[in-house]
Amino acid sequence: MQESYFIENRVFDDIAIGQSAGLTRTLMERDIALFATVSGDFNPAHVDPEFAKSDMFHKVVAHGMWGASLISTVLGTELPGPGTIYLDQSLHFRKPIGLGDVIQVRITAREKDSERHRITFDCRCTNQAGDVVIEGDAVVIAPTRKFRRPRVVLPTVTLEDHGAKFRTMIAQAANLPPLLTAVVHPVDANAIGGAVEAAQAGLIVPVLIGPEARIRDAANEAGLDISQYRLVATEHSEAAAELAARMAHKGEVLALMKGSLHTDEFLRPVMDAANFLRTAFRLSHVFLMDVPNYDRVLFITDGAININPDLEIKKDIVQNVINMAHALGIPAPRVAILSAVEMVNPRIPSTLDAAALCKMAERGQITGGVVDGPLAFDNAVSLVAAKTKHIVSPVAGLADILVAPDMDAGNMIAKQLEYLAGADAAGIVLGARVPIILTSRADNPQSRLASCAVAALIKDFQTRNLA
């Protein structure tokens, strides 16, 4: 093994007065974020650029103890190294450390206590201009036994900004007029809470539809004041869904939001021709996934409505999600038609559907997106996987949209991303004349807000394009 794979100490008797060691480190945003996360110190002077502009130094600066920790690093890994016992540290913080500053740390042995094996070190940190930013002294017990061991390989730390893409989407929708929304049968704390949260965020104006006593009980349970919102009483959930659909048909509400009732019961009146909410397209569902380590919101369809769609239904599913992507500001979304493999195989029906959908897109039966398939999941989202398999495609590794072969696959992909990859999920139903917000009881508050934001952006896009 190379020498760099080992860590070695220097024992008390081998350290001379004046002997020194050091390191050089450049302060990066990652350092501040990691230190704040580990320490719990979220002082906005360190992590909030807008606040920092008005603070004493007018810029983001490092935590003082980040610089101090570099001194500890030298003492514990270089001089004396492994086996060192920290006893005392006094420091003076002379100047702030800003992003991009190159910090040189130097410790120098000043005094030795042979009886107790103690060493006092002068400690000094300077920046790239030679200015002293931290200085002081440290007292340690130096080891008396020699150590030379392989360096421990530390785990890789990945910084994930959970929900960042959803926050951007919510901020965009907050600039629009709030969407008048029928909230159907919100008779538990989660359902009524989601509606009120969206209202308070300026995304919707809720019209609460369902049994009045149960809605008020749910609001009381959640500690919410719903006196400012219109409440339309119905006898039960089925009547609430029917009334909401009729109100949407008449233009009395501009969107529908699922409360505490089954999805099929919620959507049955939407699909009833008498309510005139159907369009030329089949209803389909989209999971919007904010995956921390993926560089865009990922759309997965259909994982909730169409159980085993045939080719004609898949065509509508693809067109629905492309149209939604346009509303969200993606002019030419990349659509990956998923299968288990990337080659057309007559024994795997999903590969045949994928090939047909690509031909439909080529011939103008599907418009507005870049469609390719069949693609396996890895090839759809990973450029490395696509390159390894020699797949030449404008979609592979860059997909905005994943079209699952059936509801089982779509639902599983979305839930796996949520529970194993830390993704946040929002849900919307497409293909009707009004946006339909389909949230889950397990959704966190931000996911519910994101679902409402998507509905608002879709409605705004539809309004502008009809004008």
Describe what you observe in this structure.
It is a single chain. The model has no long low-confidence stretch (mean pLDDT 93). An 11-stranded mixed beta sheet has the order 10-9-8-11-18-17-12-13-16-14-15, with helices on both faces. It folds into 3 domains: 3-150, Roll (Thiol Ester Dehydrase, Chain A), CATH 3.10.129.10; 163-278 and 436-448, Rossmann fold (3-Layer(aba) Sandwich); 283-431, Isopropylmalate Dehydrogenase (3-Layer(aba) Sandwich). It is elongated. A hairpin with a 4-residue loop joins strand 4 and strand 5 (118-126). It has helices spanning 29-39, 44-47, 49-54, 64-77, 164-174, 189-200, 212-222, 237-250, 263-271, 311-327, 349-362, 377-381, 383-388, 407-420, 445-466, and strands spanning 6-8, 20-26, 85-93, 102-113, 118-126, 132-141, 148-150, 179-184, 204-210, 230-233, 255-258, 284-290, 298-301, 334-338, 370-375, 401-403, 424-430, 436-437. Helix 5 (164-174) crosses helix 15 (445-466). The longest helix has 22 residues, at 445-466. The protein is an alpha/beta fold and 467 residues long. It has 15 helices and 18 strands.
Count of separate structural domains: 3
Structural class: alpha/beta
- The CATH homology group name of the largest domain: Isopropylmalate Dehydrogenase
Give Rg in angstroms. 30 Å
Please summarize the sheet with the most strands. 11 strands, mixed
Task: Produce a short descriptive summary.
This protein has 15 helices and 18 strands.
